[in-house]
């Protein structure tokens, strides 16, 4: 029962790579929010396969249908159900995988846990599952924007060893979307695209790091001690396919500094607001947002499914080799950007409602 | 309401640094488990302040009392309540902090969120809160040991730039406990102790990395898509005070490899079990344990509270400086080791019960 | 966010009376359960409108589609999504209700809570929402049957003042389904049908009592102190539309007895099993099933929407009258029977998994 | 793990009848609420044993200690822990019950579920567990009073066949507390007291009905479809020891009316507010509060533990008889009144916060 996320703004996703479709139920959405399928489609299009030469060629329009919860263009406060039908399912590509476990993929563990799996396209473990997250994230973003003008911008920070130079405090969605790899350092972006393209031709895959910033987040979000904001953000992005690491603010590098070097000293800005001079905390202190920009980084491993031949075993416990057919991303990073943004938006929106629930009632 | 953790094996902690005490309620514990306060005390002693020259000199015996849920030495299946009274509370040390916000601490954000805070010793944001986690973790460890012989060993991997060489596949609790910094690389441990001691004398602080391994974890734990095992582990440790980053298996470094280099090829071991040649996955694939060793790393920043003078502001919005009094750890890492172990144990135990609940019923 | 029910076997429903459709996501279902749409359809057909002359004439085939979670006829352990499209939606019948609040219906309270509502056919407050519950209940029933041979039989006990004589210990589904009012006392059933028919012609409505028995429920289900089995059953059925009361075992009448009259004395049956001579407890003691038949009763009020003219007010706060058009049930009881069964099944199935999770792991 | 109740205002209780103590953790309490142990003690004193000649003579002062979450007289927003130590535990009274199962008590089912039980005084199944609920309820009441002037008044409506005449719209706490049976119909109260006293002398027990009214509840509380306000109220009170039935508004008797008789017609009051002429709905329509008085009734069976000899079986599966020693209530009703009030307060407070969380954020 691990398919529900969030406490007050709560989503439940469903669906496998092949079959009837994938989607999401959003429960707890504030009523009277104006929302259209077009707004949701914008982020779905950023996520969908076949969007560029460096993503999987699988063709899915990923057109979403709102089944419930919206009436005359506004949310009702009741569950919003969104469905995306599966279309371009070439199941025959997966016949071999019905028997052979792909190394470092979910095939073997799903089989071990459930004693059964939908081996077509990875079934539930397919990145296709994230459609529901991205659709729900689009709604969360709109609420955050409307209530507090929150901006969430994700981008590719690094592909393998190619790292862009990007200022999280000023980067814009337009800059991110200006190229197909979604790295706003346009010079480095070209090198990244070349590397991904070369890797694709090599039948191999690569990984990298997505960075995401949330600006204008109100102070006070996050609930110690277990639902600290960074803890919920970590869980959110570590539940994405292929993620292997999470950092907030100074992250692992911050451990090389002393406290006097690392601490963010306070000052009063021109409006008399308490601010920090530096932002090594990454916008969260003691598990609660402090009004500075929230900055996180997520490590994505190289895609597990590759065309190169690898040693593996079969369902029937025989050793063999596998050179995967099917259509796969040589690098998940460009499509992971809207996924990370969605997960950040879902966490912030949930905590915005929770904050209002607990701390707003005695005002 | 962020003070409850877990779905089936569920803990709720309470308490502030100063006041009546701190503790935990454990709900959902399997019945008839033999457990004593002595077993719980073992891990509490590894966590408690004043245990060595490199930890805070605050003196707390941290003796736990089981209030309920255990009868004639065995768990009843009903809630286990554990209480530790506060003793050595020198509130006067904190008078200054009732007005001045410590940089990079939780003072300002608690004030922003709740409009009130217990400023004595950090109140709820104190690491003292983790007593409840460690006590509950001791019980979780015992269940895991009894059901599946699971071993959980945490240790200090790095202090600032001093990194130990440790084999997670063989490291033992005895090796970890052989020195006060809890780094099983004994040569490096001495250097670490010297560095912490020097930092303490400098009125400054340092951070580092804790690594933790869980061995003999049964296959099948973890619930995609949101409660993937690595996602719940990430949330668990990122909810600990001072944590800034999380990695599993190859982590951030894994992003520098290609898929063909990174993937863990499968083979059959002598017992016909499906195993992986390498373990870059860190024991989890597709969000589900695969039977290999689970290996995670957690970055802890340098302690925020330091004796050196820093710029800050007051509750009344005046700029000032603060040189913190009180008794604080120059480095949280040695005491963070049992905390990380506890959080890992809580996640694994919860998922063990959940696995049994969903997948065991039709057997 | 009140649209999710259950802890381990967890359902989330969505959909309004008019619009894209209604449905359910079932999360946590045990894997490898054989299930077909036909099995689910059986209970949906018992619930659907237009099934007889004493139900609403609205025509909905209510054909269900399994969107995910089932592969080659077996559950995958991943979320099962079931969708039923809306068809016969005559929205024009509801034009008047877009302005006028139906007395004792949900119109005014939805408007008060959300500031918006889908006034077509009651929107989310329509009994049409229960399709998702009944579909999920069909799966829960099958699990209970397969694991422990549990039988759940609901039936109409009373319509207005017409009460049937039925033995809960022996009543069968076939007896219940032998007439359109679902009262196994066939003689009384005819009188009930006549009364409902007369009430329909009078443009009025009536209510009554549904009784439900669960036989062969394993001992040990239910989790004190808040999730006692009777507490979860009460919540389950009190969340059904039009329910006004709940009883277990002796219920309200039991309060007229003394303890010595009311207590269920124990004895040992021929197999040496601990049994009770009487069953005033209704199969649950101390919140935990005791192996005897679980027997509950649910009071359903007369349908709120009636053709007779009534005083009411409008959205714009003007006093007026309303004689409801549209197609409505003169009595919800016959269709409520599968709803009550479904809710009982969902509670028992959830607690079966929870019991296995907590108490099965140390076996 | 059934010992936590509520979503945003969430309580977790712990403790057995004998042992270290009983208590509660309240998580999610709004910050800056003024609260004292004296205010909590008021309701605890209404619940405690030995308060009058018609309750159990067990002597427990039930003095509560706030361990955390309150600072300088105000709530911190962090978990509030409240502990009541056990004192007058005469375990020897229960020696016989370590082997013999009390009919209609929880002894046998706890043993069946957990394979172990604390047989002293009923352990966790003791009504002593409700101390935590009543303490938390006192805080919930204060929040409701402060935010919306909500009044919650419970009282004994009926003892066995002795029914009082009480107007829920005007009854006051003072009237309820004017006699030891807590029935505001003072004439009937005397008869009730005599009947309970006689029953006590007969070594027997009796039950009855508690009615509870909540006045000035804001419109909009309750979350369809599963967390309807009446569904959560039903669960809340059906989780109390000895409860066998629940009604809201017209309840079971309402099923004897036609829709045109039962419906609550709307009108506009002098302030232009939408009101209902009658209140058969009991203050809730469609699962959401409508601003009218919420009125519920709870059936409590006669106390299971009686001095009269009864047939039973032993842990070792031998048939025997039991005439219970120990000190028990001949009738739980007088002490159940504050318990019912507490559960109603907890539900309303939770839904008040939830309402604010979902529906307040876009205001």
From TrEMBL, chains A, B, C, D:
Keyword Amino-acid biosynthesis assigned: yes
CDD domains xref list: Chorismate_synthase (cd07304)
SUPFAM superfamilies: Chorismate synthase, AroC
Positions with a binding annotation for NADP(+): 47, 53
Positions bound to FMN: 124-126, 286, 301-305, 327
Catalyzed reactions per annotation: 5-O-(1-carboxyvinyl)-3-phosphoshikimate = chorismate + phosphate
Enzyme Commission number, as recorded: 4.2.3.5
Family, per entry: Belongs to the chorismate synthase family.
Protein name: Chorismate synthase
The species this protein was found in: Aphanothece sacrum FPU1
Source lineage: Bacteria, Bacillati, Cyanobacteriota, Cyanophyceae, Oscillatoriophycideae
Gene: aroC
């Amino acid at each position: 029962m691990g398919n529900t996320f969030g406490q007050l703004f709560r989503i439940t996703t469903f669906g496998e790579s092949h079959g009837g479709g994938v989607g999401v139920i959003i429960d707890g959405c504030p009523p009277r929010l104006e929302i259209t399928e077009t707004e949701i489609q914008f982020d779905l299009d950023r996520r969908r396969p076949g969007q560029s030469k460096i993503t999987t060629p699988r063709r899915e329009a990923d057109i979403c249908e709102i089944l419930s919860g919206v009436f005359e263009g506004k949310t009702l406060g009741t569950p919003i159900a969104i469905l995306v039908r599966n279309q371009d399912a070439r199941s025959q590509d997966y016949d071999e995988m019905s028997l052979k476990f792909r190394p470092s993929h979910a095939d073997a563990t799903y089989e071990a846990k459930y004693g059964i799996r939908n081996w077509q396209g990875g079934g539930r473990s397919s990145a296709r599952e994230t459609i529901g997250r991205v659709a729900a994230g689009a709604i969360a973003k709109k609420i955050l924007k409307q209530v507090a003008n929150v901006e969430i911008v994700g981008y590719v920070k690094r592909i393998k060893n190619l790292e862009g130079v990007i200022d999280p405090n000023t980067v814009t969605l337009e800059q991110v979307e200006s190229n197909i790899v979604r790295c706003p350092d346009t010079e480095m972006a070209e090198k990244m695209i070349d590397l991904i393209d070369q890797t694709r031709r090599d039948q191999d895959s690569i990984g990298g790091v997505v960075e995401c910033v949330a600006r204008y987040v109100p102070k006070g979000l996050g609930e110690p001690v277990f639902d600290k904001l960074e803890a919920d953000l970590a869980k959110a992005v570590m539940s994405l396919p292929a993620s292997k690491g999470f950092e907030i603010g100074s992250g692992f590098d911050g451990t090389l500094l002393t406290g006097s070097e690392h601490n963010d000293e306070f000052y009063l800005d021109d409006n008399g607001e308490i601010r920090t001079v530096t932002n090594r905390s990454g916008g969260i202190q003691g598990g609660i947002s402090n009004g500075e920009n929230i900055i996180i980084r997520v490590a994505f491993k190289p895609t597990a499914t590759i065309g190169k031949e690898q040693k593996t075993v079969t369902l029937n416990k025989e050793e063999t080799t596998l050179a995967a057919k099917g259509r796969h991303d040589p690098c998940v990073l460009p499509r992971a950007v809207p996924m990370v943004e969605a997960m950040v938006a879902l966490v912030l929106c949930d905590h915005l409602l929770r904050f209002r629930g607990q701390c707003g009632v005695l005002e």
